[in-house]
Amino acid sequence: MLSVNTNAGALVALQNLDSTNKQLQQTQNRINTGLKVAGPQDNAAVYQIAQGLRSDLAGMGAVKQSLDRATSTVDIAIAGGQQVSDLLNQMKAKAVAASDKGLGTASRTALQNDFNALRDQITTIVNNATFNGTNMIKNAGKGVSAIVSADGTSTISVAAADLSLSGSSITIGATSSFSSATTAASIASKLKTSIANVNSALGKLGTGASAIDSQRTFAGKLSDAIDVGIGNLVNADLAKESANLQALQVKQQLGIQALSIANQSPNVLLGLFR
């Protein structure tokens, strides 16, 4: 039926053109943003899942920062502990030399001076083995803890090691001296025990450092996996979208032509009255 009041063909053509324009706009948005799901209006379920994963990814960023801080703290403690162990070895050599009963007073005094200098270095090193306000090898020092889960509920800890003079590991005091071969031999014996204690403490710190490093590696891989997972959910296939864009542009042009033809159909009625 032909009518001047209603052009059904034009209305259908217009509806089809509107649909094509909407698809074209959606495709262009995907190409511009690189996302097929940029907001909840695109796909509410996928957007919700992606946002949850983004939250986990942000949490993993905090995990890596925490682990980095813990790593640096333990590394400083280990570096200090290694230096203390070396100094104790040198001190033991001085004490053993001073335990020689045939040694003269002047020679023993010279050894004592060297011994004191080495001993005082231990205190300096222990006092300065601090990172971010944490000293793991000073007496009454505290251990370090780092978060390992995105929600912050799981942690990993490394215990402190007391490497101060007269502490739980080093049994000689800050004023220890050898005025005779006998006292020198006694100090050498204490140093032997102290060296063993310090090396044991270093072993525990090393184990803790390895555990933290493993967690750092895992955190990095987990972050990468989450990032890839988010991409799989929301990223657009640009090659596919590019092909769709070209097809929709052609479809749009055809729709415009169809609408133009449909708009001309009422003119046919004029011919009936000629």
Write up what this structure looks like.
- The protein has 274 residues and is mainly alpha-helical.
- It has 2 domains: 8-34 and 236-272; 59-227, f41 fragment of flagellin, N-terminal domain (Up-down Bundle), CATH 1.20.1330.
- It is 70% helix and 4% strand.
- The chain contains 6 helices and 4 strands.
- The protein has helices at 8-33, 44-98, 105-128, 181-234, 238-264, 268-272; strands at residues 130-131, 134-135, 144-147, 155-158.
- The strands form 2 sheets. A two-stranded antiparallel sheet has the order 1-2. Strands 3-4 form a two-stranded antiparallel sheet.
- A hairpin with a 2-residue loop joins strand 1 (130-131) and strand 2.
- Helix 1 (8-33) packs antiparallel against helix 5 and helix 2 runs antiparallel to helix 3.
- The longest helix is centred in the N-terminal third of the chain and has 55 residues, at 44-98.
- The protein starts with 7 loop residues before the first helix and ends with a helix.
